[in-house]
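Input/output pair, single chain:
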Amino acid sequence: MSRTVVAASISLCVLLSACGGKPQLASVDGELAPCQAARCVSSLSRDPDYRIEPIAYEGSRESARLALLRIITAMPGTRIALQTEDYIHVEFTSPVMRYRDDLELQFPRRDPVVHVRSSSRAGYYDFDNNRERVEQIRAEFNAVQP
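Output:
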């Protein structure tokens, strides 16, 4: 392999690693961070490019939280990074390229909805992978709702 090819490969790896950075997650006051790139969807966004509907539920907040946890942990490449009674942060890792996406679920106390934010850590555009993942979770969740 020539030095040019090796140097280009190393440069590409460094560039891709630098794009990953730390994710911007829920703020201190509990509000989900706004979407700032086309690789993100959020139920709290007013921008139609980033907007996705929250996940509605019937019954208790705790039963909704447990049902969503069961659905999410059955998905491949999943790791629960943080979990409280009103917030869940999930990391999804792709099998081949090992890209990471972050999914956040926020369970407001007064409304029977789950606010959602899903974002890729790297790149500018995710080809709607985050939107499709949230819609898959919603469909599976709605199928088990009473």
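The two ends are 60 Å apart (CA to CA). Residues 24-144 form a domain with the TATA-Binding Protein fold (CATH 3.30.310.80).
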